[in-house]
């Protein structure tokens, strides 16, 4: 079937879940683990609000339910000039799942003429939660994101969001430099939260692309466990890379990333190039200027994402990846996803081409 001749409404393959990452925005931060080339393309040449809405509309025809269409705007949605227009129109068109939570460093919000009023307006469009990420107290955080004053501005915006009665999710990323900051940082966040329902995450960043250059900042299990016992259940259970290598070689895929085969994950760059979301391979599979159905068809033929370890036949590929690129002696802490991404990054650096997943 020639997908370019599809009739309207869409009658091609349908998916239970659609995820699209649109790297069409901008970010003032230059986080040391971040793999995106933030801010390299002028706004006037980036994917527009109209493009975003058009993409979402087309995707909805491919999904069984609108609430299963997820749209993620990177790098920081509120550094995107048209973000309020996008949020409003998505809400009006019924795409509730695209709007509930937004990660941000907040500097873009501080540029608004009346941030408190405009934040409350976002509540009417279904926004419920803001996530704020910290890499230590002020000195360490500003060093990590490479922007002086970033910590102070993020705390200022978080306070505005709490006052506007949003839920706030604190993400605290641990590295070898900020271990001593963690207790004081958590105390500060608790004080700032007040009675607002606040969640806290302690963990290490996951691996993507050039993040391998920051791998020396990943703590060992001994360093991680040196965090004060007073933190209690705030410290999630972690494993070492050696643990994940052993699991992979043994063919134990139960704790590795799993995703529905009927899902679709696309990543759209700031210039409109479409690639696999979460993929170890940034090969272009389409452009937004082309029929989206053609791009989806190519995605189905070439799908290879980091989150698609689903079946027995994947065990062989995962075992080979761990054998060749895993460090069976490493005591550095990893999630299963960050371990796989680390192996893929090493494989890519060495010029390997094998894929994980189907």
Give an account of the 3D structure.
- The chain has eleven helices and eleven strands.
- With 358 residues, it is of the alpha/beta class.
- It has helices at 49-60, 83-92, 115-124, 138-145, 150-163, 182-193, 221-225, 241-249, 292-302, 313-325, 336-349, and strands at residues 17-23, 69-74, 101-103, 129-134, 167-173, 198-203, 239-240, 263-268, 273-276, 286-287, 333-334.
- A five-stranded mixed beta sheet has the order 2-1-8-9-10, covered by helices on one side. A four-stranded parallel beta sheet has the order 3-4-5-6, covered by helices on one side. It has a two-stranded antiparallel ribbon with strand order 7-11.
- It is 33% helix and 14% strand.
Offer a concise description of the structure.
With 358 residues, this protein is of the alpha/beta class. It is 33% helix and 14% strand. The strands form 3 sheets. A 5-stranded mixed beta sheet has the order 2-1-8-9-10, covered by helices on one side. Strands 3-4-5-6 form a 4-stranded parallel beta sheet, with helices on one face. Strands 7-11 form a two-stranded antiparallel sheet.
């Amino acid at each position: 079937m020639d997908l370019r001749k599809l009739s309207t409404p869409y009658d091609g393959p349908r998916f239970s879940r659609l995820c699209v990452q649109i790297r069409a925005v901008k970010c003032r931060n230059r986080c040391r683990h971040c793999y995106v080339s933030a801010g390299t393309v002028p706004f006037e040449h980036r994917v527009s609000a109209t493009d975003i809405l058009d993409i979402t509309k087309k995707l909805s025809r491919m999904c069984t339910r609108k609430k299963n269409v997820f749209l993620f705007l990177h790098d920081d949605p509120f550094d995107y000039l048209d973000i309020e227009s996008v949020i409003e129109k998505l809400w009006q068109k019924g795409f509730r799942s695209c709007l509930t939570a937004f990660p941000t460093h907040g500097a873009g919000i501080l540029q608004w003429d009346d941030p408190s009023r405009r934040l409350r307006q976002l509540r009417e469009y279904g926004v419920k939660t803001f996530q704020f990420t910290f890499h230590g107290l002020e000195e360490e955080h500003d060093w990590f994101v490479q922007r002086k004053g970033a910590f102070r501005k993020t705390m200022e915006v978080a306070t505005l969001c709490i006052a506007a009665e949003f839920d706030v999710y604190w993400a605290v990323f641990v590295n070898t430099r900020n271990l001593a900051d963690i207790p004081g940082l958590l105390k500060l966040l608790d004080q700032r939260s007040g009675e607002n329902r606040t969640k806290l995450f302690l963990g290490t960043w996951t691996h993507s692309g050039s993040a391998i250059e920051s791998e020396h900042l990943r703590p060992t299990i001994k360093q991680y466990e040196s965090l004060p016992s007073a933190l209690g259940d705030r410290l999630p259970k972690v494993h070492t890379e050696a643990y994940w290598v052993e699991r992979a070689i043994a063919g134990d895929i139960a704790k590795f990333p799993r995703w529905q085969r009927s899902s679709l994950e696309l990543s759209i760059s700031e210039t409109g190039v479409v690639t696999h979301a979460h993929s170890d391979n940034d090969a272009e599979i389409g452009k937004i200027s082309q029929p989206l159905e053609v791009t989806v068809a190519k995605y189905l033929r070439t799908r290879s994402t980091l989150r698609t370890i689903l079946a027995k036949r994947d065990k062989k590929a995962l075992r080979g990846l761990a054998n060749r690129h895993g460090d069976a002696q490493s005591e550095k802490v990893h999630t299963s996803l960050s371990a796989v991404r680390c192996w893929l990054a090493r494989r890519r650096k060495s010029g390997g081409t094998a894929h994980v997943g189907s």
